[in-house]
Amino acid sequence: MARAGINAARLTQTAAELADEIGFDQVTGSAVARRLGIKDPSLYAHIANARELKVRVALLALEEMADQAAAALAGRAGKDALVALANTYRDYAKKHPGRYTASRFELDAQTAAASAGPRHAEMTRALLRGYDLPEPDQTDAVRLLGSTFHGYVSLEMAGSFRHTPRDADASWAWTLDTLDFALRNHPRRDSPQA
Amino acid sequence: MARAGINAARLTQTAAELADEIGFDQVTGSAVARRLGIKDPSLYAHIANARELKVRVALLALEEMADQAAAALAGRAGKDALVALANTYRDYAKKHPGRYTASRFELDAQTAAASAGPRHAEMTRALLRGYDLPEPDQTDAVRLLGSTFHGYVSLEMAGSFRHTPRDADASWAWTLDTLDFALRNHPRRDSPQA
DNA sequence: TAGCTACCCTAATACAATTAGACAAATGCT
DNA sequence: AGCATTTGTCTAATTGTATTAGGGTAGCTA
């Protein structure tokens, strides 16, 4: 049989496309093999198991999002930067729902540490420098922003906002306004007294 | 063969327990049947398919959380109520991680409408009356709170906060402080001019 | 060009989901 | 109690996914 020219990157790419089409949870090694015109067992020349395929899609998504976030943040600060970062995630999820879901796939500690995951936290932290928060508030704010962005995107993706007439874009804008307001005006922790 | 005394409720209960032990994604009809000492095909006398089992666990979780939220909110208002509601979700997720994950399982529109899901939104809305927001801000705030609560809980559950020394409880408290502050002080939309 | 390695295949196993059909247990009617 | 019906469980069988073992060849390498 002729060589099919498969490698782990192509499997990952195909799995990512499939995820966006049919949902990350529906992605299966068999489906990927089928789409590439190879037999299931051939997968195992390139990946260890089906889980690795999902992990690779997760890593791809984290990296794509981090790259897009970095591009969106370039040259921006303050609320501008906040909005740019937030929209990067939301837009990515709209365009690549399967990959976005993949990005929430649970990685083991080492894989997570080596992934683009930490870059996201770093970018959020960088953005927050514009708000001049003392530690540990800055860390808390990183968590608040990550939580709200992810929560909003995932609820919206799940359709939770479709039952109320209010436009999801408008609520999103209001949410970002509110976060910006809160971070700018949140009572600062007492500075150490003299 | 003797009757095993199975019904849909017992299947659901068992599936929920299993979810908390091994993770919602790992719950399988076979595993539930195994635990109950029956054969796989016997499941189908009680449920239509494996998806229904997951849907039922999701509905159970939504209802348990709604009941606990209602109890926690009783007699509270303002920030007190906000904290009580938020902690209900976070505590439930800590105690029942599999069920919590199940509660995010995507339901079709009709099932979702008939579920306890809407109660959650109503309770959040009720709580927000203490903040006296005009519409559509109130709706936006419902979405903000839902997003932040869910986002925080799901990131924490996924271990995203374990890599930074800052205590997750402390960040949570700060987050709730910040939301309360934002909702109390957020610039109100202009009232209609005379 | 002989051989090595990588890659793809077929064959086979195991587990999950599901359907069909047999049969006994519970239920209910008379 | 006696009989019919419904219900709950089983065995057998099918399909799809994940995975291992082992064979054969394409294409590089010496």
UniProtKB/TrEMBL annotation, chains A, B:
Give residue ranges for domain HTH tetR-type: 5-65
Q: Which organism is it from?
A: Nonomuraea glycinis
The major lineage groups are: Bacteria, Bacillati, Actinomycetota, Actinomycetes, Streptosporangiales
State the UniProt keywords alphabetically. Answer: DNA-binding, Transcription, Transcription regulation
PROSITE patterns membership: HTH_TETR_2
Q: Which GO terms describe its molecular function?
A: DNA binding
The name on file for this protein is: TetR family transcriptional regulator
Q: Does the keyword Transcription apply?
A: yes
Q: Name the Gene3D superfamilies on file.
A: Homeodomain-like, Tetracycline Repressor, domain 2
Q: Which InterPro entries match?
A: Homeodomain-like_sf (IPR009057), HTH_TetR (IPR001647), MT1864/Rv1816-like_C (IPR025996), Tet_transcr_reg_TetR-rel_C_sf (IPR036271)
The organism's place on the tree of life at top rank: Bacteria
